[in-house]
Amino acid sequence: MNNRINWIDIFKGIGIICVIIAHIINDGFIHKFIFLFHMPLFFFISGYLYKPERKCAKYLYNKSISLLIPYFIFLLIIFMFQYGTNYIYYNLKHSVFLFLWGGTKLAGWTGIFWFITCFFITQQFFNFLFTKCNKRLLILIACLFLLLAYVNYIFFQTLSLPWALNLLLYTLPIFSSGYLIKKYENVIISKKILIVSLSAISMIVCFLYPIVSINIKYTNYGVPVISFLLGIILILGIVLLSQQISKYRFITNILSYTGKASMPIMYLHQFIQLYILQYYTPNILIRFVFALFIPLLIYWIFSKFSMTRLIFLGIKPTK
């Protein structure tokens, strides 16, 4: 059990490091390659770890505490900091609109916050479907959502709904993939050579044809179906990599701790690296180090106190 927990935290650690890299290196092969899987990775692992909750209201309550409380707190803090540094010049009415609407309307320092609300909605919708549908119908709905995602992509790409609601069309199939793959985990993960080979091919395809890359936030889903499958293959490759890394204690400790702190890093890394870029230096390494280690330090401090664990980390006090 401990080994399984370790590889999952390692998996998240690799994922959040890739997120930082892709936001700092914002063009070229590395950027496009990472974008193929870095955000789908978190929806996938959430589906993999999904535990059914028949009481939808209870599931809503628990996820609201773990996701929405930190979301609004961090968003409010960064909004206030933006005003203090004159980073944005919106009037109060427009700022309140951005705060409440969220999703793709958020940009710059808060640009990554679309993920949190989309993540929350995806979890809620999947849990609702799970309580109402059998597995076959669930797969059918996931396929239908993917088809509608491509309709959104091709015909209504500029559509922006509150909390990035329309992105659910693409993220629900990814979440569902994580859940379904877990059911056949032993069979799929045992095909190590096949997964490694397909991952290498996926990397080559992305290098030769950058058009396969995706950007979920802006409803860019690459080449229909192919980009989706390439992303899932690469995610499975990272699963294998994480399981191998879990055998080595030193790197496991580093990556697993980073994985545990993935949500504070998600909230803060863009704000930190863009602030350094704007006011200090464009140096990639410096921005990466600060974007990673300042949130890690903040996570360490907040994890020490029950009140900060609740407000900033979404962890309810233990009884």
From TrEMBL:
Keywords: Acyltransferase, Membrane, Transferase, Transmembrane, Transmembrane helix
InterPro entries reported in the protein's UniProt record: Acyl_transf_3_dom (IPR002656), Nod_factor_acetyltransferase (IPR052734)
Domain Acyltransferase: 5-303
Keyword Amino-acid biosynthesis: no
Pfam families for the chain: Acyl_transf_3 (PF01757)
Transmembrane feature ranges: 7-25, 31-50, 71-89, 109-130, 137-155, 161-181, 193-212, 218-242, 254-272, 284-302
GO molecular function, one term: acyltransferase activity
Keyword Magnesium: no
Name this protein carries in UniProt: Acyltransferase family protein
Lineage start: Bacteria, Pseudomonadati, Bacteroidota, Bacteroidia, Bacteroidales
